[in-house]
Amino acid sequence: MTTDSLFTSNSSPSIERRGLRDHVYDRVLDVLLGPGVEPGSRLSIDTIARDLGVSPTPVREALVQLERTGLVSRVANKGYTVAEPLAADQLESLFDARLVLESGSAAIAARNPESILPALEEALAEHLKLTAAVHDASEAGDIPLELLREYFAADWNFHHLIFEHTHNPFLIDMSEAISTRVHRMRQTVATGVSDAEEATAEHRAILDAFSQGPEAVEAAMRSHILKVRDRARDDSVR
Amino acid sequence: MTTDSLFTSNSSPSIERRGLRDHVYDRVLDVLLGPGVEPGSRLSIDTIARDLGVSPTPVREALVQLERTGLVSRVANKGYTVAEPLAADQLESLFDARLVLESGSAAIAARNPESILPALEEALAEHLKLTAAVHDASEAGDIPLELLREYFAADWNFHHLIFEHTHNPFLIDMSEAISTRVHRMRQTVATGVSDAEEATAEHRAILDAFSQGPEAVEAAMRSHILKVRDRARDDSVR
DNA sequence: ACTTCCTATTTCCTATAGTATCTTTGAATG
DNA sequence: CATTCAAAGATACTATAGGAAATAGGAAGT
């Protein structure tokens, strides 16, 4: 009955069979992706176990999984810590990796455009809607954190859909490694939403390229990521 | 003193501080990559723990890490099993992923050819040496398993060096996910060494392309992987 | 006053024990 | 004879406890 504290907090009555390990994983991931995560701060196994009302064993397994995301780093016999933010050169590497992965994946996804186009149209519409909402909130004064979160989610969803529609488990798996880093970059670099109009325009260009074959899609995606990189560079020196 | 059985078997007197978890990981990985691994067979945590003389906890952690390699699969409350060999469609996905990753990585590695060329030359020389050795052994009758292992290692080392010379931690990390699958494919598809001459020739073409810029290298790598895929397809229907 | 060493506390790491779940085997019934 | 249900065994999962290492604080010596 010691595990009740976790499950009762879950509103869903039907609980998927997937062990405490995954619950701990989700909880810790929420904390790491949420605001107020201090890089370098210790992630005590026992503390997490006590806070979540579970034993250290599933916590250890969850942390091993999290190592892969690059959000936590581990030193043997010393424990886990929140990973340091991406340095400048690591940021360049991240964009290089995105150029390789996303351009290639976009070309593969473009093999059958009819199955992906509706989903992309919907995602872009949502992205545009949130861009307008952010724009209004920005003029009104400040932007609510929840709105910001939704905007970033819509932005990334466009990229995520392209990965999904490759139907390639290996590429999808690699995209997850990228996803967490991009999310983390947005916390640290704080590139903001100043490029919202440009980003949506470039997404539109990618979408339109789907009717012109894989090569056009690949080029459009490459162009988009290169521009995102340039804007991120400008922000970091601001 | 229960851990002595592990460490005493290690001839190296200076042991890096890296926990039992990594030792278990290495041992299980050796078994999985070695011959005689039956897909679907159970990987009992307690059995492994007893065999290696450790407790189940570090074994669990090692298996979580191995999940990522795709060599083991897990069912909640049912345990770990040796992953099934790659199906035909998964093999296609693997080659698609290689096309994306390796072509892109080759282009990045080609940014400064002078630092990678000597290493590639050496790797290709070793590959050629082993190709000749395999050829001789093949005519003599049968090929020793150890020689076969060395040949495959030399073959992959060429690809591995290109990944390493991107100096991109994300791409290198992704290459490891590919590496284990390629190794596994060679066990199951048993494409053999019939294409040794063609493979070395294509590697030579890639190497020569480094003096013609990133685009040439990318094209050469793409051509190589496409040909490898074609040969693998021929083998599977043979 | 600073450095060094020692001690105590905290934390990770490993081992052992109990509980829940799945599989399998056997028997009983239609 | 086939099928279904039940019970027993095995296995994974979680929890608790003990031992080892590292860090932090304080005291003693230079």
TrEMBL record, chains A, B:
SMART domains, per the entry: FCD, HTH_GNTR
GO molecular function: any one? Answer: DNA-binding transcription factor activity
Domain named HTH gntR-type: residues: 18-85
Q: Which Pfam families match?
A: FCD (PF07729), GntR (PF00392)
Instruction: Could you list this entry's UniProt keywords, alphabetically sorted.
Output: DNA-binding, Transcription, Transcription regulation
Protein's recorded name: GntR family transcriptional regulator
Q: What is the lineage of its organism?
A: Bacteria, Bacillati, Actinomycetota, Actinomycetes, Micrococcales
